[in-house]
Amino acid sequence: MKDYCLKNFDTNSKPNLKVGKLVGRFGEFLKGDKWRLGWAMVAVLINSAANVATPLIVGQAIDKFIFDKNWPELAGFGWTLAGIYMVVAVSNYFQTVLMGRVGQNILYRLRSQVFEKIQSLPLSFFNQNKLGDLISRINSDTDKLNQFFSQSLNQFMGQAFTLLGIGIFVFYTNSKLSFWMMLPVVGLVGVTYVLSSYMSKRSRMSLQSLGNLSAEIQESLSYFKVIVLFNRRDFFRENFKKANENNFAMSIKSGITNNISTPIYDLAWNAGLTLVLVMGIEMIVGGQITVGLLIAFLAYTDKFYAPLRQMAQVWSNTQMAFAGWVRISEILDLKTDLEITETSNNLKTKEDDVLVFDKVKFSYDGEKIILDEVNLDFKKGKTYAMVGPTGGGKSTMAALMCRLYDPDSGQIYFEGKDIRNYTGKELSEQIGFILQEQFIFTGSVGENIVYGNPNYEIYDKKKLKKELKEDGLEELVERFENGLDTEITPDTEVISLGQKQLISFMRAILRRPKLLVMDEATANIDTVTESLLQKIIDKLPVETTKVIIAHRLNTIKKADEIYFVNDGEVVSAESLEKSVEMIEKSKRKS
To answer: Which domains does the chain have, with CATH numbers?
Structure first.
């Protein structure tokens, strides 16, 4: 069976996602929003251009108007400056709105795609991963990407354009003073390069610890009734404490790492201002520049290092977004091992064969063999019983019949075709499956009964009742307080375990399947109701094949054939008495 385990973060590992692949995949989520992104970039350019122009205008005003005391011209300049600041405000508004919409659209598409991917993966994926961690990846990690697009990318592009514009402008104006202004940047480049890898590691560790915390919460709340019954609040409280403390420690370390560059950037900022001020005064004394130009350069220095300082925080957010993207991509890159094949390697089965196991071998972990070279033929219209000790492989056989898993080797054929040739829809229409664990969804009893059955989902209540009556299910519906209108939820206390099992039973019977697999279908049902269910089963079409998995031997009395399943083997028990003998023998052996 394929390994679907999403690995925890390894401090010695590096993300296996290249930047080119990152950018390329993001392109998929930008469909329909490229025009918004384009106009947002136009707004960013206008904003940056205005920010670059204002210091020079202020410097010229000082030289031309203030020293000459030309107050009328200065007033006109003030209105010009106000107009520029108005353009800055408007462009800021539009870029924020546009990028915010882009971020939300990406978040929507990304969550939809991740959820669809998870739904396409086989049952083994959910057996190998904690649901809480998956929820964290869908909610928290995708939100980090939303923040990147709606905030960080917007800021980064604006600051990048501003820095580029200031750099070009100041070197063109006075290269000597520009050199001193940008000298501290050399040190910042080195610091950023050194810290980047470390910041990325810490960010991924922080998100992983958050996923573990979510998983711990989900597990504790899902099994709270069991926790109360066994008085183990202390156990789960201690587990939560450990997960919470680990998340706290990782968050602190990530926060410190991601913000450690801020004081370094502040130091470079102050160093740049000091160098410009000292060298500028010296150049004024030497008559090389004017006071207005020095003031303009001081303003440019401030505008140059302020974005650099902000970019340090933006870079921190980008690292967190990238860490989230790595965790999300682990899911998006997964491929199901239950793909629909178009093989023509079909068995020449007999006309009355419904399901055939041909040398089927299966293991959950690749080590312990559950089924070993099993060969079985299930005929149309017959009833088969599977008995054996707990853990012998009975439920595994049922899961293979419905293709919840694929065998490691060998083949399973349904109506003469490789079961892998059928789509999930085709199998669900022809195979009814009643599980040990009953799945109930939020809604009414009626909605639960027709769940996943397109033939009945469009029926109104009156028509559905008629169909239920024809199948002999009307009496079962009456076991619920408000009949089909009884409202239930997955964790409801309104209905019993037996009633939940009745819902699953009706859900399967309504399909009128060619193959009906019942895995402990009457485990929580009284003998009177069980007798009624047997009568309902007897009303199924005569060609329906029934496979019953049960520990209660009275439920398999009418079986045409009984098989004993244990230690990887499936052998005929020949009779009910023989099956009892084989079960007792296996108990003594264990």
So the answer is: 19-332 (1.20.1560.10), 353-589 (3.40.50.300)
